[in-house]
Amino acid sequence: MTYKILLLPGDGIGPEIVAEAEKLLLAAGDKFGLDFSFTRGLIGGSAIDASGVPLPDETVALARAADAVLLGAVGGEKWDRGPAHLRPERGLLGIRKALGLYANLRPALLFPQLVGASTLKSDVVAGLDIVIIRELTGGIYFGEPRGVETLTDGTRIGCNTMVYTEAEIERIGRTGFDIARRRGRRLCSVDKANVLETSQLWREVMVRIAADYPDVELSHMYVDNAAMQLVRAPKQFDVVVTENLFGDILSDCAAMLTGSIGMLPSASLNETGFGLYEPVHGSAPDIAGQQKANPLATLLSVAMLLRYTLGEAAAADAVEQAVASVLQQGLRTGDIALPGERVLGTAQMGDAVVAALRGGV
Residue 309 has what DSSP assignment? Predict the structure, then answer.
């Protein structure tokens, strides 16, 4: 069987990190007898430049024909002044909606070799291993009405609508319970039920479906407290489930617990298990083309792709072990290097992980 992978390099450092991911997938294929075929598509600013829109219909068609999608990053100052519907980020939102990618899994795992790279004290973050599950196709990012308008007196107002159906909440909630059941059996649901009606419904649904998971301990936390607790005592969490906006913010906060946002992969899944995989970080246009980007979040996204969509657990384990091996060897990119440590470029780090994988480490 040949696995069909759509590569969407995107903007900024996207092409550099996706190139390393492609090398790693081919190496994993050689080692585990897997065949991959690759197609490429446009999304974000590169798509705007080529076709005038951030998500061409051809890209959506290519994604639907693929077994999985691997995305680099989108965005950059070059496109920030265009109309809202022509911003690169609209391409990312659009493909999530088009493919029904409602569940965003963002693990925050601190490799023991990088304890010193975190800005928090080592006793606070050592051994950190949490997963934040973000609802991805609802909430304020997609709600209507939205937009900016001018009132009769000349005052301009902006409007965004946070809206969730009971079914949307139950769907992501059950995803959270299912993943918690495979881990430490603890699920924290994050909301703002003291202020928001959408959060009140969210909490009601989570309490209702918890009856179907008596082996999982459900707790609730307001989002502002959750942000504080992530930097105060992050290891109290195992699995966190929350809505779109809150998940966006909290997962980026969790990224820094691991030493660098360049270390965090993510998976966005639909109901069939089809997934789009991408690093949590952005396009970093200020270092694009300079071989300074950390590819490890993208390479760990490859491991998630192998595990969650393709079902190739042995290959996924080997990729993760290869990343751990290069860190154990003291190999670092600039974002995770301590003073005096040798710094590798993007392709050098990718080559090191491939070598560790091929060596069976």
Answer: I
Distance of alpha carbon 251 from alpha carbon 265, whole angstroms: 11
Catalytic residue (choose from 248, 277, 292, 308)? 248
Query: Is pLDDT at 81 greater than 90 in this prediction?
Result: no
Taking the CA atoms of the chain, what radius of gyration do you get in angstroms?
20
- Annotation says 252 is catalytic: yes
Instruction: Give the residue among 66, 81, 57 at the shortest CA–CA distance from 36.
Output: 66
Catalytic position from the list 67, 178, 252, 351: 252
State pLDDT tens for residues 173-202: 999 999 999 999 999 999 999 999 999 999
Q: DSSP letter at 79?
A: G
Which entry of 192, 213, 308, 335 is annotated as an active-site residue?
192
- Residue 361 predicted with pLDDT over 60: no
Q: What are phi and psi of 144, to 5 degrees?
A: -120, 145
Q: Tell how strand 2-10 and strand 35-40 pair up.
A: parallel
- For this structure, is 123 an active site residue? no
DSSP state, residue 235: G
- What confidence tens digit (pLDDT) does each residue in 325-340 have? 999 999 999 999 988 8
Which is the catalytic residue, given 3, 141, 213, 308? 141
121 is catalytic: no
Tallying the residues shown for the chain, one arrives at 361
pLDDT, tens digit (0-9, with 9 covering 90-100), for 251-277: 988 877 887 888 999 999 999 999 999
Q: How confident is the model at residue 229 (pLDDT cuts 50, 70, 90)?
A: very high
Cα–Cα distance between 122 and 40 in angstroms, integer?
41
> Which one from 35, 57, 80, 224 is the annotated catalytic residue?
224
Q: How many helices (H) and strands (E) does the chain have?
A: 12, 12
Question: For residue 360, what pLDDT band results from cuts at 50, 70 and 90?
Answer: low
Strands of the sheet containing 35-40, edge to edge, are: 35-40, 2-10, 68-73, 275-279, 265-269, 103-109, 129-135, 239-242, 186-191, 217-222
Give the pLDDT score at 342.
85
The model's pTM? 0.90
- For this structure, is 141 an active site residue? yes
